[in-house]
């Protein structure tokens, strides 16, 4: 009785697999003996013992998890630059940060009141609104440092201060709050200080350039210096409507003896005490929906798609231009997605059936992400405080 043709083919395939297995064993034995006799040992990748497994090769899931973590870190670096519309990381060292960072209350309040983790920010209906752009960062607070004025507004080189430059993106947002911050030098005795803000314009033949826009009377008794804030919202709104009128301002704060107590020098000795503008602007964001998934730790033996903890350290990147957070919990996804787990994704299943050879199957990817808030220097050495969407993995799933 002749065996069916399908059975014969099965026997042939089994014989070929046995032969291939024997050849592989012989080759492995030969490779092992030659490497042991060599004077230079074969280096073991650092990721081989990752996730607490010293065996490395005995934990393929651990190796895959380490690979997923490394890819996630590289992705975070490129995403941050892309979402902030930066071609490369700003060339700002720690020394430059210490020199430019204002020693002022609003900045310290930002650092104290926010922990910069996306989940810590309110998610109520008043705070979150739908928007079309779900990728790029949204700005909440801008701190613009004083710059030198244009020579066309100066007479004999004065005044040096102050010009504030704003990007077109900021000029098209809604200004919720605008404060001009000026540092006043310490006084030994209680004094009445007259602070005035003058709007500058190009010098004409008669030399007129001063237009007083604000005047304050301040009783000063600080022996350690004093930061004074001035409401600047109305002036700023006019600048944004007519940017050609923004030539800068002159700041004076005279005591009864005629001494100017306002620090407006941009030279040495005034680091961190320069005038600056604090803006609160309104940009929309979009509410994200919940999606359940597995949570695992680094010692888990789970092979299915799961969310794992990952802390990103910006100092390890050498990114001193990011003021805060210095690190944050980003998390990452790793694990297998079997077809049997995908019964709730009928569309994916139909695609795989239609093209089984061309489809790699479902992948373990983030299904819910949340933003982080960041305080950073941009490439113009301005301090920006804003929200970067999609930087924290909240849930992982197969899709």
Question: Brief overview, please?
Answer:
This protein is α+β, with helices and mostly antiparallel strands and 399 residues long. The protein has helices at 5-37, 60-83, 94-100, 105-113, 168-171, 233-241, 314-317, 346-354; strands at residues 138-145, 147-148, 161-163, 174-184, 191-199, 211-220, 226-231, 249-254, 276-282, 306-308, 311-313, 322-324, 327-329, 332-334, 364-377, 383-398.
Task: Walk me through this protein's architecture.
It comes from Anolis carolinensis (Green anole). Residues 1-21 form the signal peptide. GO terms for molecular function: cytokine activity; growth factor activity. The protein is of the alpha+beta class and 399 residues long. It has 2 domains: 60-85 and 286-398, Cystine-knot cytokines (Cystine Knot Cytokines, subunit B, Ribbon); 141-282, Sandwich (Immunoglobulin-like), CATH 2.60.40. 25% of the residues lie in helices and 27% in strands. The protein has 8 helices and 16 strands. The protein has helices at residues 5-37, 60-83, 94-100, 105-113, 168-171, 233-241, 314-317, 346-354; strands at 138-145, 147-148, 161-163, 174-184, 191-199, 211-220, 226-231, 249-254, 276-282, 306-308, 311-313, 322-324, 327-329, 332-334, 364-377, 383-398. The chain is elongated and about 80 Å long. The protein starts with a helix and ends with a strand. 26% of the residues are buried. Residues 1-18, 20-56, 115-132, 286-291 and 340-359 have low confidence and may be disordered.
């Amino acid at each position: 009785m002749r065996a069916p043709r399908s059975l014969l083919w099965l026997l042939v395939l089994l014989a070929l697999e046995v032969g291939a297995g024997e050849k592989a064993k012989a080759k492995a034995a030969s490779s092992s003996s030659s490497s042991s006799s060599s004077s230079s040992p074969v280096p073991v990748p650092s990721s081989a013992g990752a996730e607490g497994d010293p065996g490395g090769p005995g934990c393929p899931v651990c190796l895959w998890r380490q690979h997923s973590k490394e890819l996630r870190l590289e992705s975070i670096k490129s995403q941050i630059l892309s979402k902030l519309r930066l071609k490369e990381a700003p060339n700002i060292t720690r020394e430059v940060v210490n020199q430019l960072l204002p020693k002022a209350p609003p900045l310290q309040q930002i650092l104290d009141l926010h922990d910069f983790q996306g989940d810590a920010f309110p998610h109520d209906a008043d705070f979150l609104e739908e928007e079309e752009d779900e990728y790029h960062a949204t700005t909440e607070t801008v701190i613009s440092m004083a710059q030198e004025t244009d020579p066309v507004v100066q007479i004999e080189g004065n005044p040096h201060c102050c010009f504030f430059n704003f990007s077109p993106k900021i000029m098209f947002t809604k200004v919720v709050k605008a404060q001009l911050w000026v540092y006043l030098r310490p006084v030994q005795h209680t004094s009445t200080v007259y602070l005035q803000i003058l709007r500058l314009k190009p010098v004409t033949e008669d030399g007129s350039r001063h237009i007083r826009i604000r005047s304050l009377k301040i009783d000063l008794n600080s022996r350690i210096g004093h930061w004074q804030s001035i409401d600047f919202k109305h002036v700023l709104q006019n600048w944004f409507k007519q940017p050609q009128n923004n030539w800068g301002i002159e700041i004076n704060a005279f005591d009864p003896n005629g001494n100017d107590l306002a620090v407006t020098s941009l030279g040495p000795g005034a680091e961190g005490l320069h005038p600056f503008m604090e803006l609160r602007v309104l940009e929309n964001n979009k509410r994200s929906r919940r999606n359940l998934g597995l949570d695992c730790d680094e010692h888990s033996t789970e092979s299915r798609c799961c969310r794992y903890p990952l802390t990103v350290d910006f100092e390890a990147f050498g990114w001193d231009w990011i003021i805060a957070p210095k690190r944050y919990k980003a998390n990452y996804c790793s694990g297998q997605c079997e077809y049997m787990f995908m019964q709730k994704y009928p569309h994916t299943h139909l695609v795989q059936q239609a093209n089984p050879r061309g489809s790699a199957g479902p992948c373990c990817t983030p299904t819910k992400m949340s933003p982080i808030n960041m305080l950073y220097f941009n490439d113009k050495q301005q301090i920006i405080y804003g929200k970067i969407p999609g930087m924290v993995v909240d849930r992982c799933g197969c899709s």
